[in-house]
UniProtKB/TrEMBL annotation:
Name under which the protein is recorded: Saccharopine dehydrogenase (NAD+, L-lysine-forming)
EC number: 1.5.1.7
Domain Saccharopine dehydrogenase NADP binding: 4-137
GO MF, one example: saccharopine dehydrogenase (NAD+, L-lysine-forming) activity
Lineage: Bacteria, Pseudomonadati, Pseudomonadota, Alphaproteobacteria, Sphingomonadales
Organism of this sequence: Sphingobium lignivorans
Length: 402
C-alpha cells in the first residue's frame, strides 16, 4: 500500500491528484488536504468522475505545524506532497519530521514579507532529515523540476562538460482575459517583479527586472519575446553543476501583460508591505490576488501551447563542441480535457506526481534534503514520456546569443 497525503487544492494539486488516481498501482490510497475543504471536495468529485477513484479530503491550515502533524499521524501516509504555497514549506517539513514521513514540494520556501526565493532555509534541514532517516525532495515541478532533470540528463548522456545553460520558459497560451496569471498571482507577480539574476563565472550578476529581452522562435508557438529573469532552479543548478560558466533563465511575456504589470507596480498594487485601509492592515499584492481571476478558472478558455526546455553548450561525450536543446510542448486544451486544468498547472502537477511515484516506490531514496539534480534523471525522463509530458532533443548550430 502506498498512501500519500497531498496538501494544497489549487491547479497544481488538482492535476497531481488526478494523475495519481490514474496510476493506482503506485498510489493506492490518496488523501487531499487544503485550507478550503470545498476545493478538495470539488477535485475529489472530478477525480471520481474521470477515474472512478475515491480520494479522502480534509480541511487543514498547513501553517499550523501541530494540526498538520496530527493529520499526518491520523492518515499515516508514506509521503507528504506539498502543493500549497511556498510560505508553508518549512511548517510542512517540520510536521513531516514530527510525524516521521517523507516530504516533497515544487517550490522553495519564501517568507511572506520578503520577495526572496532561496534554498538556504530548506537546506538547513539537511541534518534533521538525515538523522531521522527521511527524504525531503525539493522542487519536483517543471521549473524547478523538469528543467533541472533535463540538465542532469544532458550531462549524464551527452556532455563531458557543460559550459553554458539557458532555460527557456514559453507560455504561448491565450486565456482571453485582459490580465490574469497562470499560477498563484501573488507568487507569480513577486517572481516577475524581482530583479533579474544569472550565474556567470562563479558569481551572481544582478540586472533590473525585465531589462533584457530577445526573440526566440519556439516550436509549436512561434516567435516570442523572452526576458531574462531570476528563477529558483538557478541556485541549485549553480551548486550542483559548478563547471557551468553561465546559467540563465528566460520567460516569455506578452506586451499587454507587461503593460498591466507596469501600471499595477506604478500605482503600488504590487507592494508586499502592509498599508492601512479603513483602519485595517492590508497587503496590496494580496488584495490584488483577491480581485484577479483564480488561475484554476482559466482552464476552460485557455488555448495554445507551452514550450519549456534547456539549451546546453559544451564538450560532448564524442569529443566535439555541441549545443543541444531538450524541451517539452504541452497543449492547454488537451491538459484541460484530461484533468480540468490548463497546461501551466498540468506541467507542474505531472512532475509532482512523477517525483512522488519515484519516492514512494523507493526508486529515488536517501536520507536528507535532496534537490532533484542529485537524483538519477533516467526514470523521471521515462515517466515524463509515459504520463503526458513527452520531450524531444534537437541539435542547434550554436549557443543562445546575447
Ligand atoms: P494555487 O494558489 O492555485 O493553490 C494553492 C493551494 O494551497 C490553494 O488551494 C490554497 O488554499 C492552499 N493553501 C494556501 N495556504 C494554505 C495553508 N496555510 N494551508 C493549507 N492550504 C493552503 O497555486 P498553484 O496550484 O498554482 O501552485 C501550487 C504550488 O506550486 C505553489 O507553491 C507554486 O509556487 C508551485 N508552482 C511550481 C511550479 C514549478 O514549475 N515548479 C509552477 C507553478 C506553481 P485556498 O484555496 O484556501 O487559498
Amino acid at each position: 500500500m502506498s498512501k500519500v497525503l497531498v496538501i494544497g487544492a489549487g491547479g497544481v494539486g488538482s492535476v497531481a491528484v488526478h494523475k495519481m488516481a490514474m496510476n493506482r498501482d503506485i498510489f493506492s490510497d490518496i488523501h487531499l488536504a487544503s485550507r478550503t475543504v470545498s476545493k478538495c471536495d470539488a477535485i475529489a468529485a472530478s477525480v471520481k468522475e474521470r477515474t472512478g477513484v475515491t480520494i479522502s479530503t480534509y480541511a487543514l491550515d498547513a501553517d499550523d505545524v501541530e494540526a498538520t502533524t496530527a493529520l499526518i499521524r491520523q492518515i499515516g501516509p508514506k509521503l507528504v506532497v506539498n502543493l500549497a504555497l511556498p510560505y508553508q514549506d518549512l511548517a510542512i517539513m517540520d510536521a513531516c519530521l514530527a510525524a516521521g514521513v517523507h516530504y516533497m514540494d515544487t517550490a522553495n520556501y519564501e517568507p511572506r514579507d520578503e520577495a526572496h526565493f532561496e534554498y538556504s532555509w530548506q537546506w538547513a534541514y539537511q541534518d534533521k532529515f538525515r538523522e531521522a532517516g527521511l527524504m525531503a525532495l525539493l522542487g519536483s515541478g517543471f521549473d524547478p523540476g523538469v528543467t533541472s532533470v533535463f540538465a542532469t540528463w544532458l550531462k549524464k548522456h551527452h556532455f563531458e562538460r557543460i559550459d553554458t545553460l539557458d532555460i527557456l520558459d514559453c507560455n504561448g497560451g491565450d486565456h482571453g482575459q485582459h490580465f490574469a496569471t497562470n499560477f498563484n498571482p501573488e507568487i507569480n507577480i513577486r517572481e516577475v517583479t524581482a530583479p533579474a539574476r544569472h550565474w556567470e563565472n562563479g558569481e551572481w550578476v544582478t540586472t533590473p527586472a525585465l531589462s533584457y529581452k530577445q526573440t526566440f522562435d519556439f516550436e509549436a508557438v512561434g516567435p516570442k519575446n523572452m526576458y531574462l529573469m531570476y528563477h529558483e532552479e538557478l541556485e541549485s543548478l549553480a551548486k550542483f553543476f559548478p563547471e557551468i560558466k553561465r546559467i540563465r533563465f528566460w520567460m516569455t511575456f506578452g506586451d499587454a501583460y507587461l503593460k498591466h504589470l507596469e501600471v499595477l507596480q506604478n500605482v503600488g498594487m504590487t507592494r508586499i508591505d502592509p498599508v492601512i485601509y479603513n483602519g485595517v492592515e492590508i497587503i496590496p499584492l494580496q488584495f490584488l490576488k483577491a480581485v484577479l481571476p483564480e488561475p484554476a478558472s482559466l482552464g476552460p478558455t485557455t488555448k495554445g501551447k507551452t514550450n519549456i526546455g534547456d539549451i546546453a553548450t559544451g564538450l560532448g561525450k564524442d569529443g566535439t563542441e555541441k549545443t543541444l536543446y531538450v524541451y517539452n510542448i504541452c497543449d492547454h486544451e488537451d491538459a484541460y480535457a484530461e484533468t480540468g486544468n490548463q497546461a501551466v498547472s498540468y506541467t507542474t502537477g505531472v512532475p509532482a506526481m512523477i517525483g512522488a511515484a519515484l519516492v514512494l516506490q523507493g526508486i529515488w531514496s536517501g536520507a536528507g534534503v535532496f534537490n532533484i539534480e542529485q537524483l538519477d534523471p533516467d526514470p523521471f525522463m521515462d515517466m515524463l514520456n509515459k504520463h503526458g509530458l513527452p520531450w524531444q532533443v534537437k541539435e542547434l548550430d550554436g549557443p543562445l546569443g546575447f
